[in-house]
């Protein structure tokens, strides 16, 4: 394992492609898949969520709007978003992912595993230019989308894209993020080697978080991680977000 990534260091090169399935191979699916999802928000709820985001994001709101435009145009055209997602991007995705920024220390090195269309990695990158973020994505179509989005958003100095599997990646980071990648037991086995000493995993989870914690208890103990579910409410007008935080304790 290579040396840990510090907040002040960033590997040379914005993009690295290596391995991983090609577009259309098994495992590639659009963001928004899965079961037991909440009911779709109304147009009024989505508009309210966008307004809340504008207030929360301040000077970064305009750049986030550009990212959402990329998602609803190129992201849809490239098949990276499910057909229901454009109508609920702010309420179900952007605000949800932005909650992670509250848990990441200033200047941290961050790797977003299975970054897909950039949720949550690019959301965090837009809001936190102080971070050094790696978007790790093994699938070619998605990694190409991420490269183009990073360039269009002007984030090349703080965000890079690596096309690689988590198991093959040779660096450690202060923070590992993940959303809709795998159940906790599997996720921990994949990403634990990426967590630097004193680092943490931040996984966006839903109602199953407590069941997943019970399932993963043995793996967490063996890997020297101490986990807890956190509830983050960025506004009284939107639903709270559940984040599973696993800290390296040994």
UniProtKB/TrEMBL annotation:
GO molecular function per UniProt: rRNA (guanine-N7-)-methyltransferase activity
Metal-binding in keyword set: no
Binding site for S-adenosyl-L-methionine: 114, 119, 166-167, 179
EC numbers for this chain: 2.1.1.-
Ranges for region Disordered: 1-48
Entry keyword set: Cytoplasm, Methyltransferase, rRNA processing, S-adenosyl-L-methionine, Transferase
GO terms under cellular component: cytosol
Compartment(s) of residence: Cytoplasm
Function in brief: Specifically methylates the N7 position of a guanine in 16S rRNA.
Family: Belongs to the methyltransferase superfamily. RNA methyltransferase RsmG family.
Name this polypeptide is given: Ribosomal RNA small subunit methyltransferase G
